[in-house]
Design a protein that fits this description.
Chain lengths: 187, 490
């Protein structure tokens, strides 16, 4: 069984109502597990779409930058507390979440990541680090409930989750920069 | 395709923009000192706008010029992206324009420190737009520099394998001989890449925090966290200027003295120590914050003492050894580079004194601190890239140095020592810094400093004019070469 099949299965699993309800009932799981898993599902499926629509990807995402731009926009959109709230209250938003994250973020990510150079990857990582750090501050320090569907305690927990991921990214970048990469580094 | 000429064009642009902005910022510096000295009557609001633009502009322009020095020499060993250098320059200019509009059109005046919650809490001295223009301007400027350092990191990793190898850790560990150590330009650039990527990441986070607070004051930040992030950005970034500019000393002095100056194990250890210390010593800006954990303050003092030593000692001692009895030919480039060693060594002394907790409690908010950084930055860092400008002009064209240049050199050295001295004397008199108005007892050194500042400004103008003359000459030569090439019969 190839990666695309794993991706499709993962996507199918995430769509199942009990799984969806379970994940969305806890804010930190909704934001830091369900959303990344939806992107991962798309990322795994990318190979199938790349093969099936070769010309499309060549014409529209030759150097990977348009694809990454789309990924960043979609991820930024789903980092906004209001959109998360809306996805729990509005069916069309929930649909959009399940379509946009795997198909407009995960699949372009799968196609673009191999095409972009080390510099662009570094830019994305060093954009991600302060951005996630800021999200941590925002959720930990917010003076009000930023989502109507979750308690203040839950949003604080989410903030700490973001902080852990920020620390993880920093450790990853440190090991990346300080271990031998002479063969892996590109333009 | 990259050529030496096209690479030099960008370096020349970095240095020209940096040099011109520095002269403009010196005008504001002189005006502030004249105001403090009671010679002119500047409104306090205007004084603080000048303070903001002077601090921000000086550090930004010096960083740009020093980045030009770093790019020039680093690109002799690794492949830097010209596109990234161009984008950095464009973002720098965009950021500068935004900052200028924010400060002068919208009266933004928080000083370069933009210390939370001041950007939002201005007591109506400025509004939201001014604060946002300044903060976003800084963010754009920082994004350009971040791109530049990410590219230098990429290029170093591609050639040497990792940043650890760029710092020569394999040589320190004994896996490679000292003969295989990376060139000094690579070692210094690796150090600067590490510290500045960290600084700019911290800076972008605190800038956005301030932006959110300005837009919606209900979102507050822990002021201590904000101050830590601000100085983790500001101190490291400003400090790194000298580590970029010193590459000129490493590369040019040995050529003049006709002696090798290779990196050895002690040199590599010193640079690694300075990499770590530079990241940590910003806490000496928080020695008066009693709510900081005590251990961080002790660390701030101890590492500030320690950071003054490794790279400075190996560099100053190395420079002395390279020059000693070498029969070196003294011209503007070598003289300025040698003078910069003096500026660096003398300039860190007041800083180390101020990093002592008991002294800091008395001196940190006095003009003692500007005394330190004017000596350190003007006679240390800036002198290094002024020396490089003369070196590049000489290497790249047939321009001759004249008596005016030599007079400017002496005037510059004396003026900066006098200016810094006036600040240090003011500090010793307990004159507060960042105050628009002085009582009569504080005015004397300010007037003296202003006069010294005028001479320093004139001297720097001579340096920059020489560089611009070189650019014109170079352009003219290129035009002549092109014409003669076109006229050649087929």
């Amino acid at each position: 069984m190839g990666k695309p099949m794993f991706g499709a299965l993962l996507f199918g699993l995430l769509v199942i109502p009990p799984v969806r309800h379970l994940m969305e009932s806890v804010m930190i799981v909704h934001m830091l597990v369900q959303i990344p898993l939806l992107i991962l599902a798309g990322f795994l499926m990318a190979g199938f779409f790349r093969k099936s629509f070769q010309r499309f990807w060549f014409v529209w995402n030759e150097n990977g930058v348009p694809g990454m731009l789309l990924v960043v926009i979609i991820v930024l959109y789903w980092l906004i507390p209001r959109t998360i709230d809306a996805s729990l209250e509005n069916w069309s938003m929930e649909w959009f979440k399940f379509i946009s994250l795997p198909f407009l973020a995960g699949i372009p990510l799968g196609d673009s990541w191999g095409k972009i150079g080390t510099l662009t990857k570094s830019i994305i990582m060093f954009n991600l680090i302060p951005m996630l750090g800021l999200m941590a501050w925002l959720y930990i320090d917010a003076p009000v409930r930023v989502c109507n569907n979750y308690l203040e305690a839950e949003q604080k927990m989410l903030g700490w989750g973001f902080l852990m991921i920020t620390a993880g990214c920093i450790i990853y970048m440190l090991q990346y920069a300080f271990t031998d990469r002479s063969d892996a580094v590109s333009e | 395709m990259e050529t030496v000429k096209s690479r030099n064009n960008l370096v020349v642009s970095y240095l020209t923009v940096g040099g011109v902005i520095i002269i403009a910022m010196m005008v504001f510096g002189v005006l502030m000192l004249l105001t403090q000295g009671g010679v002119i009557d500047l409104a306090p609001a205007a004084f603080y706008q000048f303070l903001t633009i002077h601090g921000t502009g000086m550090v930004g322009a010096a960083a740009l010029a020093a980045a030009g020095v770093m790019a020039y020499f680093l690109s002799q060993y690794v492949q830097l992206s010209q596109k990234v250098m161009r984008v950095n320059l464009a973002l720098f200019l965009t950021g500068v324009v935004m900052v200028i509009i924010g400060v002068f059109s919208f009266k933004y005046a928080s000083a370069w420190t933009f210390l939370y919650p001041l950007p939002q809490l201005s007591a109506n001295a400025w509004g939201t737009i001014g604060a946002l223009l300044y903060l976003f301007g800084m963010l754009i400027l920082g994004a350009g520099f971040l791109l530049f350092y990410l590219d230098s990191g990429r290029a170093i990793m591609k050639k040497y394998g990792s940043l650890a190898k760029g710092l020569g850790w394999d040589v320190i560990a004994g896996k490679k001989s000292e003969d295989d150590a990376p060139p000094k330009a690579v070692i210094a650039s690796t150090m600067v890449t590490i510290v500045n990527v960290t600084a700019l990441t911290a800076g972008s986070a605190v800038l956005i925090m301030n932006v959110i607070n300005v837009i919606n004051p209900a979102f507050t930040v822990d002021p201590l966290l904000a101050k830590n992030l601000t100085y983790a950005f500001g101190h490291i970034f400003a400090n790194s200027i000298i580590y970029m500019a010193v590459i000129a000393v490493y590369e040019i002095l040995p050529r003049y003295a006709n002696r090798p100056w290779k990196a050895n194990r002690v040199f590599l250890i010193a640079w690694t120590m300075s990499t770590v210390f530079t990241l940590l010593i910003y806490t000496h800006h928080l020695l008066m914050d009693s709510v900081m954990p005590t251990w961080t303050l002790i660390l701030g003092q101890a590492l500030s003492y320690a950071n003054g030593l490794p790279v400075l000692v190996v560099t100053a001692y190395g420079a002395l050894m390279v020059v000693y009895k070498s029969g070196i030919k003294w011209d503007m480039a070598s003289s300025l580079l040698y003078l910069s060693m003096f500026g660096w060594v003398v300039g860190v002394v007041p800083a180390i004194v101020d990093a002592t907790i008991v002294v800091n409690h008395v001196m940190h908010n006095t003009k003692w601190v500007p005394g330190h950084f004017h000596m350190y930055m003007a006679l240390g860092a800036c002198t290094m890239f002024f020396g490089f400008m003369y070196y590049l002009a000489k290497e790249d064209s047939d321009i001759k140095e004249n008596a005016m240049n030599r007079i400017a050199f002496v005037a510059f050295a004396l003026a900066i020592v006098s200016l810094s001295g006036s600040f240090l004397v003011s500090g010793a008199l307990s004159t507060p810094r960042r105050w628009a108005t002085h009582i009569p007892e504080w005015m004397g050194p300010a007037v003296f400093g202003a006069v010294a500042g005028v001479f320093a400004m004139l001297a720097v103008t001579v340096f920059v004019i020489h560089f611009i003359r070189y650019i014109n000459k170079r352009r003219h030569n290129v035009h002549l070469e092109k014409t003669s090439h076109d006229e050649k019969p087929a």
